Structures are given as structure tokens and as C-alpha cells.
Amino acid sequence: MSIPAGDVEVPERVRALAGGAEIVPVWRNELGGVTFRAGALFIKHGPRHGEASMAEEAERLAWAAQWASVPSVLDQGETDDEEWLVTRAMDGETAVAPRWRERPATAVRAVAEGLRALHDALPVDACPFDWSVPTRIIRAQERGSDVPAALRDPPPVDRLVVCHGDACAPNTLIGDDGRWTAHVDLGALGTADRWADIAVATMSLGWNYGPGWDGLFLEAYGVGPDPVRTEYYRALWDVA
């Protein structure tokens, strides 16, 4: 995932959904999709594929919005070749915007506190979505991934929560005061051990801010290091 550089072609579908507003590309994912800002809207657009579904993301956003600060879904659709998701803009900007890369301690703390707040807010018993290890392994195998035998025996669950599902730093928004404001990109949201999120969130810190930020993140989240679960869920992320 990255902030687009250079000219980005704006699909006709996005122009139609923007309704005449100025269109600015803000994010590109590794699956060929681009998110655009158009006035007070964000328009996620990309090719249809088997890795994710914007319809599933819309369903998860609608559910999570009952308890958490996530984007409101305004429109979602698909054709044989493309899919799109339109949401209302939220306060704040991605935690990897240039100004937060220049203030990594502030960004790391905000990402950690935001993830803890999400885990505490979303009710496990009411969640209809699953992101457990068995489910992730089945989906990985359906996509043709080779899941090593060692990953079929996960560590015991530390705390069952509703996980974000892609808790990398860019998916937390931060306000002008340096505090988290919202979470985005919840297409994989579901119940799982909280370390499924924590392990990936801390791994992403190195990609975005450089090495050495895990300790601050864990302190701000409110949990001690867990090398076993961290190693396991990072390995699972790479496969699944």
C-alpha cells in the first residue's frame, strides 16, 4: 500500500460517483485498487478479484459503525470487471502522511491507542464475522497458498476480540491533535485473538517509521511483549 505518486488515471466510474467534485488520488493498494477523495467523499475503486470484496467491507463497516469510529457507507457496487465503495470522509489523515512520518512517536502511540480502543469497543458476542486461524487457513488454501504444518497449531488465544483484520499503521487516521480519530479498510474484520492484529500492527511500524517502535506501541496499547504469538501471527499473515 502506498500514497500514489505521479499521474493516476481516474476511472469513468469514479468520475460519475464524484458528481463533479475535484478528484484526488490518496491511496493505492497492492491489489490494483486506488482510493480517491472527491469533496466530502472517499471512493475506493478496483478490479474484482478473489482476495477481498468491497461488498464484504461495506457489510463490516455498517456493523462496526454501531460502536466504533469508522466511515459511513454511502454506496457500494460491482460489475463483472470492477467494484467500488463510497464512504463519507472522516476527520484526520492516515498515520503515514508525511507530517506523521516526521513525528513517529506521536503516530505510533496514536495507532496503538486506536487499536486498543477498537478492540475494547466492538462486542465479540454480537460479531457475525470470523477471522480465526482455521478460517484464515481455509481461505489461504482456497487461494492456492501452501500453509506450513507449523501454522496449523496456533498458540492459545490470549484475548478474543473483534480484530481490525488489517491493522497496519496506514489504516488509522490521526487528527491535528495527534490522537487517533478513526479506522479504515476493515474488509477482513472479524473475531480472533488480539495478537492477530497486534503482531501485524507492530510489524508495519518498521515499514513506515523505521525500526525500534514496538516497545512504545505495546506500552501505549497496554500489553507486554509476547514473542511467541507475535512470531506466529506474523508468519500467518505472510501466508494467509
The strand order across the widest sheet is: 1-2-3-5-4
Average of the residue pLDDT scores: 93
| Share of β-strand residues | 15-25%
| Number of helical elements | 8
CATH architecture of the largest domain: Alpha-Beta Complex
Q: Which descriptors apply to this entry?
A:
20% strand; alpha+beta; 8 helices; ATP-binding; 2 domains; transferase; kinase; antibiotic resistance; 3-stranded antiparallel sheet; 240 residues; 10 strands; Aminoglycoside_PTrfase; Aminoglycoside 3'-phosphotransferase, Chain: A, domain 2
Question: Would you mind describing this structure in some detail?
Answer:
By secondary structure, the chain is of the alpha+beta class. It has 2 domains: 12-88, Phosphorylase Kinase, domain 1, CATH 3.30.200; 93-239, Aminoglycoside 3'-phosphotransferase, Chain: A, domain 2 (Alpha-Beta Complex), CATH 3.90.1200.10. The protein has 8 helices and 10 strands. The strands form 3 sheets. It has a 5-stranded antiparallel beta sheet, with helices on both faces. Pfam families: APH (PF01636). InterPro entries: AGP_Transferase, Aminoglycoside_PTrfase, Kan/Strep_kinase, Kinase-like_dom_sf. It comes from Microbacterium marinilacus.
